[in-house]
Amino acid sequence: MDTIREQIVKAIVARLEGLTTVPVLRRETYEDEDAFVCVWDGEQDTEKTKYRSNRHTMPVVIEYLKSDAAKPYASSANAMYGEVVQALFDDGSGNHDSTLGGLANSLTEVNAMILTPVAGLKVIGCSITVDVVFDTANGNPFGQ
Questions:
Q1: CA-CA 20 to 30 A from 111: which of 39, 58, 81, 118?
Q2: All domains of the chain in start order, with CATH
């Protein structure tokens, strides 16, 4: 059985898999992909609530990168940003859902960075950080 945390990351990956035909990765090394999305779950902050549960805030970073991109770089990278945000908050049927089907209390975009090429490189993309707030039963990372 996966922890709630892992279920949340898998739900994010599933939403992003519908984004494009590029692979959605959860690893630290990239192989020969010309384009990919990478999902990084980060440290979480936890606070005890008065109802015998813990409330967690976990940042998740989503990177969407393409190599050998065509000009105009900035508008292409901004379009990639829009695709990621739309896929992330779409429940699969065109409806907005910021709870990942009830796994989370909320999903909020907190940071975005548009990546355009530096001299000699043609890599473009975006990096988006979302805070995922979710509850677990005190001492049980598997149950809400």
A1: 118
A2: 4-137 (3.30.70.1700)
